[in-house]
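Regression test attached.
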Amino acid sequence: MSWTEVQNLGVKAANGAGVPPAQALAFGAMLARHVADDGPQGIVATALSEPERIVGLAHRVETIVEAASISAKPVHAKEEDAGTRAMLVSWIAGLPCKSELEVTGAKLRINLSLTEPSARGRPDRLHLDPSLAALMTELAAKTYVPDSDMSRSGGAGAGLMELD
Amino acid sequence: MRDAIQAPNVLGMKDHAPPLVPLRPPETVLRLSRMGQMMPTRLSFLRALVRRLCAERAAVSRTVWDMAPQGYGRAVYSIDLGGHTYSLVAISTDLPDHKRSDRVIATAWDAAFVLFDGVPGREDLDRIAAQAPKQEAGRFGPRDLVLSRANKSVRMWDATVAALRAGRQPDPNMIRDIGYLMRTTAVYGNGKFGIADRHLIADRPGLKGPFAAEMLTVYLIRHFTLDLVQHVGGAPLEPDLARHLGIGNATGLGMAPFLVNHPVLLHNWMHARETALARIIGRAVMTDTQAERLLQLAYRARAHLADWHVPAEDHNAILRQLEADWDAFLPIFDAPQFFGALWQAAQSRSDSLQELLAALLIEVCPEDVDDLAASMGDPFGPLVTPFSDTDAVKHAIARDWAWALNCDYEVEDQCRRFWYVSAAKLEPRLGDRFAEPGADLESPLDIARRVAQLNADLPDRPTPVSDFTAAYAQHAHAIARVALLARYPYAEIRDNLIGATCRPIDMLRCKLSYFGATKFDPKSDLWTRITLAQGAPLAHELRPEMDDWWLPVMER
C-alpha cells in the first residue's frame, strides 16, 4: 500500500471507531509512521477497539508538544505498557515537525523543534497486516452514508447520461 | 483586525523587494462569492508546467501506437522533464453510449490513462492495460504516478471525425463552443489505489509544484486525443484548430472538501496570488511594452468573454454582465495608466471584474510573479506552535474568526447542509440535514460552527489548552484550525460551509482556476465542466515564445 492509503485508512478507521476528527487525523499520521518503522501492528487493532485509548494518546502527545513549546529542553515521558509506548513513539515520530527520541526501557526522552520540518524519510510501500487492514476497512465503512435514490440524484454532481 | 499582510521572503525565491502596497486581506479574497469569480493566472499549475516544458523545449515522442482503425487500442507517449522521463500510457476502448457518465459512480470510460515513471516495458504495459480501465477498482504501483480516465465529447468527436473523413476541417465555431474532444472525469495522484505517493516525486525538477504530475498527465492526454481523432478521421487537423482543442474536465463535489482539508495549501496558493497582485499594483513605473501588452490582453479578454457562453441561464447572465462591465471598463486601457491607478479604478466595479483585472495584471508582469510559483506547494505539512493557554485561543478567535461567530448555527438555514461520503464508490455528497438521513456521519467541514462552539465553551480564566481538551476532546479540531489560521492567514474560507446558501460551485471555481481552467460551464451548484490547455502550445510547439495563452481566443 502507499503511505497515503495507509494514513487515510487510519483516519477513517479511527473516525469509524468513534474518535473525534483531530485525534483521528493524528492517528492516521501515527499509523503510517508506525507501519513504516515496523512497529507492532497488533496493538493498533487493540487501540481501535478502545477509542478512548486513542484519544488519551493524542492528549498525551498534546501535553508533550505543549511542554516543548514552553522550553527548549528535552521532554521526558514514561510508559510502562510496551504496546502503548510503541504507538507513542510512532505518534511523535509522525509529527510534521523535527523530532528526536531516545527510548530507555519505559522512559522516553523527546526533543521537538516545532518550527523545523521533520526530516524522516518515507518508504515507497508500506506493508499493513491483512487482518488489520480488514478491520480498518470495516471501521472506515461505518463513516459512509448508505446510498439512496435521493442522495444519488440530489446530493452530487453530474446526471447519469452525458452524451454531449 | 490583524496587521496588513506583507509578502514574506520565501526561501529559494529570487530577491524581490516587498510589495509597496499591502496584500488584499483574507476577509476580502476568501469569501465564496469572490472565490466563485476567480480566473486562471500565469501562476496556475498548468500554465507553470507548460512554461517549464517550453523553457526546456521538451519533446513528446510516441513510442507505442497499437490502435485499430476505429481508435481502440493502446498508445504510449514519452517526455523528458527536469532530467527524468515520464510516459503516458493510454488505453482506448469501445464504450457503449449508455455507459458514458461523468460521475464518480461510473464504471467504464472511453479511455483510461496512467502517467508512468520512466518508459514502460512490455510487462508494465500489459499490467497497466489490465488495471487502468478498472480505475478505482484497480491496483497500481509506485512507478504509476497518476491515474485518469476520460470520456468523449460525442458531439465534438463525431463532428471532427466526419469532417476529416470528408476532407474538411471541423467547424471552428463548434471548436470554440465545446473546446475539447474528451473530458477527464477524475485525475488521481498522491498514493490513491496504490499509485506513487507525492513525496516520492516532490523533489524532482518540474514536478515540485502542486499537481504538477497531474497537469503533465492532462497535457499529454490532450495530445493523445488530438492524435486519436486524426487517426480515426484519416487526415490532419489544421494547427490553429488543433491548438484550440484543449482537454475537458468534469468536476464534482470532491474538489470542494480538498480546500478545507488542505488549509496550508489553500494559504500558499492564495498568498502567492495576492503577493503577485500587490507587487504589480505597487510598481512605480510602467514601460511602453507593458502598456501595449496590457491593452492587447485587455482586448483579448473581451474576445474571450464574447466567446464564452454556457447553457445554464443564470450562469450565462453572470457572464453577460461581466462582458458588459468589461466593455465599459475597457476605455481606461486606451490611455496609459499606472498599475495602481488601474486597480484603484476597478474598486467601484464588481467582484468578477476585479478578479478578471487581477488575473490580467498578473499576466502582464511575468518578471514580477513567476518566481512565486515555487512557493505554492506544501512540502512539510502544518508547522504550528501551540497556544500558551485558553486565553490565547480566545484572543486568536476574537482577532481572526469574527466572521464565524456572527452566525446562529441553531437556525435551520444556517446548518441545513451536511457534507458526507456516500457508500457508493465513496462519492462526496451534500445533504439536507432536515430532509435526509446521514447527518450523524457528517464530514467535519463545518469549521465555522465548530469554532463558535469552541468559543462558547472556553473557560473564563486562562487554563492550559491540554487541560481544556482533556475535558473537551471534541474541540481539538477547532483549536487546531484556530492555531493554523494564526500562522497561515489565507488558510480558511470565510463563510459558513453548512449554510443553506453555500454554493460548492464557488469552491470548485477557486480550485480549478488554480489548475488553469477556462470556460467554466456550471451544470448546477454542485458540479461544473471546464476546459484545460485550450490554446496551449501543441506538443511540437513547446518553445518559450509559445507561452502566451492566457484566456485563449481562436485565431481566425
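Expected vs. actual: identical. The first strand of chain A starts at residue 75 and ends at 78.
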